[in-house]
Design goal:
Oligomer: homodimer
CATH class of the largest domain in chain A: Alpha Beta
Strand content of chain A: 15-25%
CATH architecture of the largest domain in chain A: 2-Layer Sandwich
Number of domains of chain A: 2
Chain lengths: ~550, ~550
C-alpha cells in the first residue's frame, strides 16, 4: 500500500494528485487557482507579449492543493493514509525562469520587488524577448551552430537565456539583484527539499537541455566565451548557474520537516527531479519508443523518445532533442504547435463574440460537414509556428471564403488546419527516422471533443488513442515519484515497470475513415503548399517574406 | 418649365423619379418593392446560383412608382403638372434577358408558364450558366477571338447568350415557347411605346454591346455560323433577335395612349432608349472623358468613356468596351468588382451573426485604426473577380491573423481589400491609356460610409468625389429623356448640355491623406502579390490553380 503525489503547475492553476502506486488509481485531486493577475497571469494591457507569474502563488498553491488532495484521498480511499505517501513529483510550465537571491528566495517575494513583473517568474508564454532570441540565434549560427542544431536552428523568445538577457536589457536593477535564475520546475523541488543555496539546486535535464542549451557534448551550459559575446553580464551569471543537470533517475532531495508539517506528510520522503508538464505527461501516458504523445490544449506539445543507444540526427524544426529529457535512457524529442485551442477560442470569443457554449454548437454543426465541403483551408499560425518552421513571425491565413462561408465552416477549417499542423510534425519525425507507430493524445481537447479527434485521425491517417487519465502531467509526476522512491519503498525500480502499472489508455479511440483520409491527403497537399510558400520552404517564389513585411508595417504603425 | 421621369429597375425594387430639366432638381420619387420571391428575387434554396424575377412585377411597379412619384412631385413643387412631363427614360439591371412570345409578351405572364422560373426574367446575378459561358469563351477564343477581346477574353455566365443557351439545355420547352428574348432594359421602353412585334423593339447598344457580343465591326450580333457551332437552335434564334442596336441619341418610341392613361401622363411623349442602371448612373453623375464613375453597392461598377475619335486598345480584364454604350460619341468602358457591400454584409451577418447596426459599430471602431495596423490583408474575391481577372472561380483570402485580430480589424481589412480591388481597376485603365483625372462615386456606400470613402481615397491615391444625387441611375434616365425630348420641347440638344444643367457633385469629398497613401502603397504592393499569385498572373510559381483545386474538391464532396 503506497501512494505518491504529483504536483502539476499549469498556466492558471496548480493541481495536486494523489495516486495509488499499485495501479495508478487517482484517489484524490485538488486544483488551486493562482490569485494574482488575470487568471494567474500578470499581463500588460500595453504589451500583449508580457506574461509573468507571482512566485507567492506557487507556494500558497503547493500547500493548499496538496493538503486538500490528501483530504479527498482519505475520503475516497479507505486504505489511504498520509503516512503511506512515499514521494512527491513536480511538473511545471517552462521555460519559466525565476530570478532568485543567494538564498534561493524569488526576488518577487521581497517587499522591495513584489510588484515588479520583471522580478517575478517569466512565464513560458512571455514573448517580450524576441529581439534577444534573434540575436542568440544569429550568434549561435555564426559561432556555435551545434548549440541550435538540436532546437530547429532557432533559439526561442520563450526560453531561458533570451528572457534573462531581456531582463538585463530592460530592468538591470532586477538582473543585478538576482543572484541566480531557476526554472520553476527546479525551484519547487528545491523548496520541498530545503535547498537554500542556488548552487545546490539539482537542475533537471528537461529544462536545461530543451531551453538553456545545456548538453553533455559541450559540457553543460553554453561556454562563457559565447555568453560574453552576448553580454559579459551573462558570462558572469554562468558561474552562478549550474554545471550539471539530471534525468529522472536521480532525485532532487528529501522532504524537509518544515514542508512535511505544512503538507501533512512524512518528513524525508523523496522529491523527484522536476520536469516540464508535457514531459511528465508523456510518462503519465506511458510513452515508449514508437509512441508520439500529443498533449492538446491551448497549444500542443508533441513528444517522442528514441533509445540513446541509437544515433539520432538533428531534426530541422524540432524544438529539442535531449538525452534523458523525457525518459531516462532515451533521447527526448519535443515538437509542438504554438496555438491550437487558442485559435478556436480566438474565433469564438474575438471574431464571433460568442459565449463558451458556441464551441459546442459549432462542433455539432461542423460534424455535419464533409472534409473539403466548405472549400476553406487555413494555416494554423495565429501564434506563429513552433514546429517545423520555428518562426514566431508567421500569422494565420484563411482561404476559400465565399459570400456563404459560415461560422461552422470556418471553425472546421481552423480545426483542420491544426490537424494538418499536427500531421506536419508526425511527417517530420518519420522523415528523420523517428518511428511513429502510435499516437496517444491527452489534455482537455482530447478528452472533450470527439468530432475534432475524428478529424485529427482522418487528417493525419493515424488512429488517435487517448490516455486513460485526464490529468496525465500530474500522474506522470506521481509515476516519477514512485520511481524515485524505488521498489523497496513500494515504488518501482524503473519507468517501464512503473508506467506499465500506473498508466493506460481509454477504451474510446478514433480510427481513420478511409474515404476521409483520401480527401484529407489532397487537402494536406494544398495545406503544405501554403505552408511551404508562406513558411519560406519553397524558395522558387519569394512569398516567404510576405508576412514579415506585413508585421514590419504593423509594428511601425503601432509605435506611437 | 419641363420635367422628365427616370425609371430605375433595381434588384429588389423599381424607383420612379421626377426631375426638373432646368436644374436637375428631383421633385418626386417613389420606390415600389417587387412582390414576388425573396425581396423581389425568385431563388432556389438548392441552387445558390439561380436568380430570377417575375415580369409582372415590372409592369405593376412601373404603374405604381410613376403614379406615386407624380403625386409627390405635385405636392413638392407648386409649378409641377403632369402635362409638363416631356419624356421618360428607363434603366435596368442587366444582363437580364426575358423570353417573350411573338407579341412581345413575357412567357411568365402566360398562365401556362407563370410559376416556371425559366420563363421569367433571368436576373443579372443568375449564375446557373457557368458551363455554357465557359464553352462560349472557349469557342470564341478558338474561332472568333475578336468577339471576346473587348470583354476581357471571357464571356460571363451572367450574360445574354449563356443564359439563353442554358435555358435551351435545361428547359427546352421554355426555349421553344419563346419567340425571342429581350433585355429588361429594352423591354420596358418597348412596353411604354407599344411595340407588339419583337422585331420592332429598338434595342439599346448598352445591353447589346456589353452582354450580347454585338459590335459594328462584325455587323451586329455574333454570326450564325458561330452560333450554330454552339447550337443550331441559337443560330435559328438569331433571326428572331435584332440586326441593329442604338445609342442614347435615338429614342425608343412615343408613349402609347394605354400607358399614358395608366400613368397619368400626356400621350406621345418620348421614351428614351433603355440602358443599364450603372450606365445611366454615369449620365446622372455627369460623366466625361477623364472621369471614372464608381457605382458602389453590393458590388461595384466602374465606368469610363473615351472619345470614339480615338483608337482604344482592347484592355485585358475590362468587362466591355462598346462604342456609344454610355455616352453617344464615346466608347463606354465597363469594369467592376463582383462583391463589395456583399462582403461586409457576409462578414457581419454570416460570420459575426450581427444585426445591421454592427456595420455602424465596426465602422466606428475601424476608424480608430491606422492603415496597416492590424497586420491583416485580404483579397476581395468572395464572389470571384470580375475585373481585372474575369474569373468567377476565385475565392476570398485573409492573411495575417493573430490570436488578437478583432472584428473591426477584419472588417477594415475587408474594406481595404475592396479598395485595393478598386485601385487595380483604375491602374488597369491608366495602363492602357484611358485617362483617369477624377473619380466620382455614387450608390449607397458612397452616400453613407465616410470612413470607408476615406480609406478608398487613401488606398487608391485618388480624391473620392461623390455625386450630388443619391439616385444617379434614375436621374441619368431622366437626363436621357430630356435629351431624347430635345431642346425644342424644354429638354436638351445633347448630353453635355443636359448633364451640365441636371447633374453635379456633393460638397463633401474625400482627399487622400499623404501619410496613409504611403502605407497603402506598400500594402497595395502586397495585395497585388497575392492577387497575381492566386489570380494566375504570376506564372513563376504554380499557385494559380490552387483555389480551383479546392473548389473541385468542394464540388466533388458536395454532390451526393
Amino acid at each position: 500500500m503506497a501512494y505518491t503525489i504529483g504536483v502539476d503547475y499549469g498556466t492558471n492553476s496548480v493541481r495536486a494528485l494523489v495516486v495509488d502506486t499499485n495501479n495508478g488509481k487517482e484517489v484524490g485531486t485538488y486544483v488551486f487557482n493562482y490569485p494574482h493577475g488575470h487568471q494567474g497571469v500578470i499581463i500588460d494591457p500595453k504589451d500583449h507579449n508580457l506574461a509573468r507569474q507571482h512566485p507567492a502563488d506557487y507556494l500558497a498553491g503547493l500547500e493548499t492543493s496538496v493538503r486538500e488532495a490528501l483530504k479527498l484521498a482519505a475520503q475516497n480511499d479507505a486504505q489511504f493514509a498520509p503516512e503511506n505517501v512515499i514521494g512527491i513529483g513536480v511538473d511545471t510550465t517552462g521555460s519559466s525562469p525565476i530570478p532568485v537571491d543567494a538564498n534561493c528566495v524569488p526576488l518577487a517575494i521581497h517587499p522591495h520587488h513584489k510588484n515588479n513583473p520583471n522580478a517575478m517568474c517569466w512565464l513560458w508564454k512571455d514573448h517580450t524577448s524576441v529581439e534577444e532570441a534573434g540575436k542568440i540565434t544569429d550568434l549561435a549560427l555564426e559561432q556555435r551552430p551545434q548549440y541550435v542544431a538540436k532546437c530547429g536552428n532557432t533559439y526561442s523568445s520563450e526560453w531561458f537565456w533570451a528572457k534573462i538577457w531581456h531582463c538585463l536589457n530592460v530592468d538591470p536593477k532586477v538582473f543585478h539583484a538576482a543572484y541566480s535564475w531557476v526554472e520553476l520546475s527546479d525551484y519547487i523541488p528545491a523548496v520541498l527539499s530545503g535547498v537554500k543555496n542556488p548552487a545546490n539546486i539539482k537542475r533537471g535535464i528537461c529544462a536545461a537541455g530543451h531551453k538553456a542549451l545545456y548538453c553533455d557534448e559541450w559540457n553543460g551550459l553554453p561556454d562563457k566565451e559565447f555568453l560574453n559575446m552576448l553580454s559579459p553580464e551573462l558570462g558572469r551569471l554562468r558561474d552562478r548557474l549550474y554545471d550539471k543537470a539530471y534525468d529522472l533517475n536521480e532525485s532532487a532531495g528529501l522532504l524537509t520537516k518544515e514542508w512535511a508539517v505544512k503538507l501533512g506528510l512524512p518528513e524525508g520522503i523523496v522529491i523527484a527531479i522536476g520536469a516540464f508538464d508535457v514531459h511528465l505527461g508523456c510518462i503519465g501516458v506511458g510513452i515508449k519508443e514508437g509512441v508520439v504523445v500529443k498533449a492538446m490544449g491551448t497549444s500542443t506539445c508533441d513528444c517522442g523518445v528514441v533509445s540513446n543507444t541509437k544515433k539520432v540526427a538533428d531534426i530541422p524544426g524540432i524544438c529539442g532533442i535531449v538525452n534523458g529529457s523525457i525518459l531516462p535512457g532515451f533521447y527526448g524529442l519535443e515538437a509542438g504547435q504554438s496555438a491550437v485551442g487558442d485559435i478556436f477560442k480566438w474565433f469564438v470569443e474575438v471574431v464571433c463574440k460568442g459565449q463558451d457554449s458556441l464551441h459546442g454548437e459549432l462542433t455539432k454543426e461542423m460534424a455535419a460537414l464533409k472534409p473539403g465541403q466548405s472549400g476553406l483551408l487555413a494555416l494554423d499560425w495565429n501564434n506563429g509556428n513552433r514546429t517545423v518552421l520555428v518562426d514566431q513571425r508567421l500569422t494565420g491565413l484563411l482561404i476559400g471564403q465565399t459570400l456563404h462561408s459560415s461560422q461552422a465552416e470556418i471553425y472546421r477549417a481552423l480545426v483542420e488546419a491544426t490537424a494538418f499542423g499536427a500531421r506536419a510534425i508526425l511527417e517530420r519525425f518519420k522523415e528523420y527516422g523517428v518511428p511513429v507507430t502510435d499516437v496517444v493524445c491527452c489534455g482537455g481537447i482530447a478528452e472533450k471533443n470527439a468530432v475534432l479527434m475524428q478529424i485529427y485521425a482522418d487528417a493525419t491517417g493515424y488512429e488517435m488513442k487517448v490516455s486513460r487519465s485526464p490529468q496525465t502531467c500530474a500522474l506522470g509526476s506521481a509515476v516519477a515519484a514512485a520511481v524515485a522512491a524505488g521498489s523497496a519503498k513500494g515504488g518501482y525500480a524503473d519507468f517501464p515497470a512503473a508506467m506499465a502499472k500506473m498508466t493506460g489508455l481509454k477504451d474510446v479511440t478514433y480510427k481513420p475513415i478511409a474515404e476521409n483520409v483520401d480527401i484529407y491527403n489532397e487537402l494536406y497537399f494544398l495545406y503544405m503548399r501554403l505552408h511551404d510558400n508562406f513558411g519560406g520552404v519553397t524558395k522558387g517564389d519569394d512569398l516567404s517574406l510576405f508576412m514579415k513585411q506585413l508585421i514590419n508595417i504593423k509594428q511601425r504603425q503601432s509605435k506611437d
